Amino acid sequence: MLDVRRLRLLRDLAQHGTIAAVAAAHTYTPSAVSQQLAVLEREAGVPLLERTGRRVALTPAGRTLVQHAEEVLAALERAAAALAAGRDGLCGPLRIGAFPTAMRTLLPPALVALGEAHPRLELSVHEFDPAVVPHLLRDGTLDVALVHDYDLVPIEPDPALRTVALLDETIYVAAAEARDLPGCRDEPWILASPGTLCHTMTVRACEAAGFIPRVRHHADDFVTVLTFVAAGQGVALVPELAATGVPAGVVLTPLETRRRTRLAFRAGAAQHPAVAAFAEAMGARTDH
What we know:
Elements (H helix, E strand, L loop, with lengths): L3 H13 L2 H8 L3 H15 L4 E4 L2 E4 L1 H26 L6 E7 L1 H5 L2 H11 L3 E7 L5 H6 L5 E7 L10 E15 L12 E4 L5 H12 L5 E5 L3 H9 L5 E4 L11 E16 L6 H9 L7
Parallel strand pairs: 3-4, 3-5, 7-8
Antiparallel strand pairs: 1-2, 5-10, 6-9, 6-10
GO molecular function: DNA binding; DNA-binding transcription factor activity
Keywords: DNA-binding, Transcription, Transcription regulation
Family: Belongs to the LysR transcriptional regulatory family.
């Protein structure tokens, strides 16, 4: 009988690419992960990994088993959802991840609605950049999350997760006067922290316009970004959700590029009552 916990490790190896990354994700040692995968190989009766020096890759049998592991894990999520649906009313924890502009704009009304409709539901909200959310959903740290991507930085499909569209936003150039993107070639720029989706989006948008942005400041909070623009510290790209309370001296010029906000959860969890209730409060449906 194949062990579900070891199947999860194999699935995560396919996702992360290295045993060290899987170990870090599960707070194990790399040797412990290697030992568990070796046991899984013995259970499967076929080689699952190819080792070349310090690197490992999945064999064809390993890739096949990962596909089945995704189905097994999704089935377990559906089983948990069915059991939760049989309880008397919604109760227990619901761990929600969200990015800062959603925390400030989209999430508060949904939290109020959920609290009124399901007072026994224990809501817990955590702020994360969308780039790290898929891992946190896969390992069970989060139950549901608001994530975003850009047409210039699309989310890679993840068989372990499902997403539901919530909102499309316009992206604006924020400057002291109306400016298109090529007109900002020689301006100093205010970018989000390297490694975030917002940083990558700005760099790619500028590259598509024919230049590399000259970065003066890094700031992740869009209120701060707009304040810096108003203070003459540079130009920036900001999404529509952040374009409220724009300070004097800042002009927003719309671009064609868009940001898409989505509701994300584990595959198989769509019918979990708490996930469905959260989706309803956000104005989405998980049964599409």
